[in-house]
Design a protein that fits this description.
The complex is a heterodimer.
Chain A: E1 36-37, H1 42-45, E2 76-85, E3 95-100, E4 125-129, E5 135-141, E6 146-148, E7 154-156, E8 159-164, E9 173-178, H2 197-201, E10 206-207, E11 218-221, E12 224-226
Chain B: H1 15-18, H2 20-24, E1 45-53, E2 63-68, E3 95-99, E4 105-111, E5 116-117, E6 123-124, E7 127-134, E8 141-147, H3 151-155, H4 158-161, E9 172-178, E10 181-185, E11 188-189, E12 199-200
Parallel strand pairs in B: 1-10, 1-11, 8-9
Antiparallel strand pairs in B: 1-4, 2-3, 2-7, 5-6, 7-8, 9-10
Classes of the chains: A mainly beta, B mainly beta.
């Protein structure tokens, strides 16, 4: 078979280096040997695809998908955007998974012992598939900030974790979305892990009055860019 | 050209988000989990297990391991693997994901993949693509698992050939038999002595 068209390289001017002393946990977890470059074979350009049944419609509304005896507490928000490649093309029918703290800044997890209440009606997890235009849309609760042990008085800014696949295993991405105007951003080593100030700012969603729904919820918009290809054989 | 969105760590709290079956005990059809093959799946049924270890040799209890592989015939379930003469298997998707336990351990049940085409006319030895995510890793890390009983194919594999010989053993899973199962043992050392080879994919 013909060789697959490779994806563009992971942009290490954008992605954080493994070894990043300001984020203390990298100390013993960062690989120290240089990465060995390999060309893209079928093993790298292929990757899992999921049907719509893997992300049932209700899983995109985190204010509903974990209800036990009522609505979750906090500020309801809409988070939407498009998944694109570096060429500006939509990435359709790809799985988008999110997870986040509740409004009080607490996760359901045995390791999270932050002195803040759990919400019995909120797991903070959801997933959906992008549409033909690459668009995803979640309804959720605005996450709270929370303390962590990285340094004295360390607080994570409010954020939503995102996991994306794209068309191949090479396009896999896990990232975090932040909220505009958050005063904690400048103190957060995870947010600041990217070597590029522009790439950091690109992790901050835009508030959108257009997406905001009257009498119901504020809207935020965040586009995500996955690796693209120089040219596919069909375009050549 | 648009800039790639920066990677960020999965953090320690991805349980409900990425490995919900470990939180709820419910297996979600067509989604994720550590069981890739069922009784109907063609091929040699195997267990892939190991531990994720940090630079001090301590277990990493809050990492996530994902695997991606071809089926036993060597075909990927993906539009770009359009070799009609190599069969797909309806019962096999080729993707697995799990979180590590307190001992840093992970365990997948799958089938051994067949050889897959490389670039040009080359063939690649049977292998599984492995991706590691963790708190303390701002970007994920790619590696590959090869099989200890494929010595000849491994010797001709172009990707293994790109790795210095002294470090190749970090990519070879050791075959053992345990309680009637074929188990391949594959530890992932993020740092330090015997650091696993990670690829710039």
């Amino acid at each position: 078979m013909a060789d697959p068209a490779p994806y563009r390289a992971r942009d290490w001017n954008v992605h954080p280096a493994y070894d990043y002393p300001a984020y203390a946990s990298t100390e013993f977890r960062a690989p120290k040997q240089p990465l060995v470059p390999i060309p893209h074979t079928l093993s790298e350009v292929t990757g899992p695809s999921f049907g719509r049944d893997a992300a049932p419609e209700g899983e995109a509304d985190l204010t509903v998908n974990a209800r036990v005896n009522g609505e979750p507490m906090g500020e309801r928000i809409i988070v939407t955007g498009r998944v694109l490649d570096e060429n500006g093309r939509a990435v359709p029918e790809t799985m988008v998974e999110i997870w986040q703290s509740n409004a009080a800044g607490r996760y359901i997890h045995e390791v999270d012992q932050h002195d803040a209440p759990l919400d019995p009606n909120f797991t903070g997890a959801g997933r959906t598939m992008t549409d033909a235009d690459g668009r995803y849309r979640f309804v959720t609760i605005k996450p709270g900030a929370y303390p962590w042990g990285n340094h004295h008085n360390a607080w994570r800014p409010a954020h939503i974790h995102f996991s994306l696949f794209g068309p191949g295993f090479a396009t896999r991405l896990v990232s975090q979305m932040y909220f505009p105007g958050d005063p904690l951003l400048e103190f957060d080593p995870i947010f600041k892990g990217s070597p590029s100030p522009e790439a950091m700012q690109a992790l901050v969603a835009d508030f959108s009055m257009e997406i905001t729904r009257p009498e119901w919820a504020l809207g935020y918009e965040w586009d995500i860019v996955l690796r693209g290809r120089d040219a596919t054989p069909m375009e050549a | 050209m648009a800039k790639q969105t920066a990677s960020q760590t999965v953090g320690p709290f991805f349980l409900y988000g990425l490995t919900p079956e470990l939180a709820t005990g419910i297996r979600y059809t067509g989604y994720t989990g550590a069981v890739l093959a069922d009784e109907a799946t063609a091929g040699e049924h195997i267990v892939v297990e190991g531990r994720v270890l940090d630079g001090k040799g301590d277990p990493v209890p809050d990492s996530m391991v994902e695997i991606w592989q071809a089926n036993a015939a060597g075909r990927y379930r993906h539009a770009e693997d359009d070799r009609a003469d190599v069969p797909l298997d309806d019962t096999f998707r080729g993707f697995g994901r799990t979180g590590t336990g307190k001992d840093g351990g992970f365990r997948f049940r799958t089938v051994k993949p067949g050889p897959v085409p490389g670039l040009g006319n080359a063939w690649q030895a049977p292998h599984i693509v492995v991706c590691v995510f963790a708190r303390g890793m701002l970007s994920h890390a790619y590696t590959r698992l090869y099989f200890s009983d494929e010595g000849e194919a491994n010797g001709a594999d172009p990707v293994l050939g790109a790795v210095e010989a002294a470090r190749r053993p970090t990519l070879i899973a050791e075959r053992t038999e345990s309680r009637g199962q074929t188990v391949y043992r594959f530890d992932i050392r993020l740092q330090g002595e015997g650091e696993t080879v990670f690829f710039d994919v």
